[in-house]
Amino acid sequence: MGELRLMKGNEAIAEGFIRAGVDAYYGYPITPQSEVMEYLMAEKPEERTGMVVLQAESELAAINMVYGAACTGKKIVTSSSSPGISLMQESFSYIAGSEVPAVVLNVVRGGPGLGDIQPAQSDYFQSTKGGGHGDYRQIVLAPSSVQEMYDFVNLAFDLAFKYRIMVLILSDGAIGQMMEKVMLDEQKPRLTNQEIKDRFDSWALTGRTPGREHNIITSLDLDQENLERHNFHLQKKYKEIEENEVILEEVSLEDAEYVFMAYGTSARICHKALQIARKEGIKVGLLRPITLWPFPEKKVKELASKVKGFLSVEMSAGQMIEDIRLAVEGKTKVAHFGRYGGVIHSPEEVVAALKSKIIGG
User: Fold this and answer.
1) Is the pLDDT at 32 greater than 70, yes or no?
2) Which of 204, 211, 230, 311 has a Cα at 20 to 30 A from 18?
């Protein structure tokens, strides 16, 4: 039986870590996501499930603990906010190159620099294009509710282990701090060492296994031809993810002449903006990418030949709009409406932007 609670987004995802059977959380406090570790410390999951919760000395230490522990095939997670995530980028590239499954939460705040602790969506480029070095990708999930903060934990780990890839849950300070009802499911047991060996022994560091060569996990290969073959392998995997793992939400697109495109908190605002516009006789729909990578390129292309324009609604100077424009390929209008530095747009502002930038633009 499920359990209904009123929770903050940061609390819900922390409870999600426990109930998903996570083996270890390594983190460092930074607003507006500090409640994640605070909740875990208070809940004492080591007594509930045996889960390790450790405050590292820095974000750099935390992500490298994730890297090392995840090599054993266990469920490992960390969380931070924008400046802390920036510090982790080199290790993100190492994790990708080593094909280690792991989950990271970013509760985005305003920037650049230290900025403020208010919600923003200005980490889109960093998240979807790869803030580290080399040709790599990571799956990016964008929750827009407290319930999805909880639900996406299991989804993230399923994808991480299916593809041996890092999955980034890209939230923001509004969703992390707001309180909503959350339906919690039953506790999943942590995998035993034998279960991990049975499932992941082909790659994970599970100890000496008779008849198996030593597993070596590294992103270093000084033979350029070998490294090229590895890159071909990675690109083939990323193509498979693009073909099979796109997740999106469609609202009132059947008869839409215009499309709001937004994720996370901005998508919540667009739900209300859509209602306002529809009452005024404007046929507008909403396309919400749930996976920011892989991006719903095919759906955007399909809509581009049917609608009069897209309005990309973001709490940034305009980042996702570049992916929309690439998918639209000049077939229809594309415009951006954004607020910066932690300011959240109102539904009325979104409708006004649609009228001025798309309908009358």
Assistant:
1) yes
2) 204
